[in-house]
Amino acid sequence: MENRSLVTIADHSKEKIMYLLRMAEEFEKHTNRKLLDGKVVATLFFEPSTRTRLSFETAANRLGARVIGFTDPKVTSSTKGETLKDTIMMVSNYADIIVMRHYLEGAARYASEVSPVPIINAGDGANQHPSQTMLDLYSIYKTQGTLENLHIHLVGDLKYGRTVHSLLMAMRHFNPTFHFIAPDELKMPDVYKEYCRKNHINYVEHKDFTADTIADADILYMTRVQKERFTDLMEYEKVKDLYLLKLSMLEKAKEKMRILHPLPRVNEIEYAIDDDPHAYYFEQAHNGLFARQALICDALGLTLDDVLNDRTIIE
Amino acid sequence: MKREELLVAALESGTVIDHIPSNKLFEVINLLHLEKMKSSITVGYNLKSNKMGHKSIIKIAGKFFSDEELNQLAVISPNVTLCIIRDYEVVEKKEVVLPDELKGIVRCANPKCITNNEPMKTDFHVVDNENGKVALRCHYCNKEVDLDNVKLV
Ligand SMILES: [Zn+2]
Questions:
Q1: Measured between beta carbons, which residues in chain A are less than 8 angstroms from residue B115?
Q2: What is the architecture, at CATH level 2, of domain A131-284?
Q3: A218 near A152, Cβ under 8 Å?
Q4: What number is the ipTM of this complex?
Q5: B112 contact residues in A (CB cutoff 8 A)
Q6: pLDDT at A191 (0 to 100)
Q7: What integer pLDDT is reported at residue A10 of this predicted model?
């Protein structure tokens, strides 16, 4: 049997990415359907993540599927010493697909190897979070009309930020120019810069974060700068205010430029920006719904044609 | 036969693993599960070697390993030499070749990797890292470990 699980999109071809974006577009046009009528989707959250779980469960519910699952690891057998494999085997008796989030890295890959039903990785430790990457790509595509030849400015924690690493890898097909804007302690790791060189991705590094550095940005991707990441707290105090986006910094920004953030934000974006037309982070989160509808359907073996010819749309 | 090999008993038929760095001897024994074998095994430890200063050697009577089994040795000591003996004659000499994939041999260095928390086999891909050196990448968590720093399971 073909394994339709989604563990990472790092290996997805350009065609596959565009195909999934097309599918997400259809789900944005018509979100409520009975396309998954009779299907059961399990959401297994071995680590709590309310935001991601609600998004997946809404995606499934709005397609007519039923949802089972658990969130709190304390009430599940995983804390009683049951192996991940046993939990997956048990749940696969009940569900047609399993969406799982786990605190251990590689958990989703392993689950996809032992599970008789497809697995969707909703985050495995610091490793992969493909549905976040998919909604980021969809947001960029929707706001810019293309993924090709864009200037993408990544700001904040580029060292530990899993979302920026995945985005960088997924964008390799589209000739982007990346701008890395980060304090020394949190700068883009060498392994990703090497990845850029190998894949002919242009990049520029900046230390300062001003109206001028972001003037040519098409996408301004903000991330959280967390105190816990710093070994030297003096250093944190020095840089914490340098990577805050203020309304005044947008004066030279391109009209079509959009600000993304994986959310939740702490204080890296001034609240006054929320009403500015460049702000896009709430819509971005909303796009997660359509992106996840596409990922669930694809993992269940439904095609773009099935979605285009769908007669179960609820107007 | 080289003089130093005569320090341990000659073999009628079987496998000789030579030029093992002495500090890797026990890892070689573990890797090939020699402790579970019924055949007679002769181990020479800290023997003098012109090439290496000191080396170790293992002779396993009546046992012939598959290339797959022997190539695992490349992970811990890439320069061992192998002799296949039949009727007291060396019928074949081999060197070990690092395979593309290593299943159930190496431990992942990442404590948050699923392989360190679930009863399962590890799986590593042999890759060139960004410095052009050979590294092992965990199939599950994607973390890389230098070949010089590997720990066996
Ligand atoms: Zn690992």
A1: 106, 110
A2: 3-Layer(aba) Sandwich (3.40)
A3: yes
A4: 0.90
A5: 103-105, 125-126
A6: 87
A7: 87
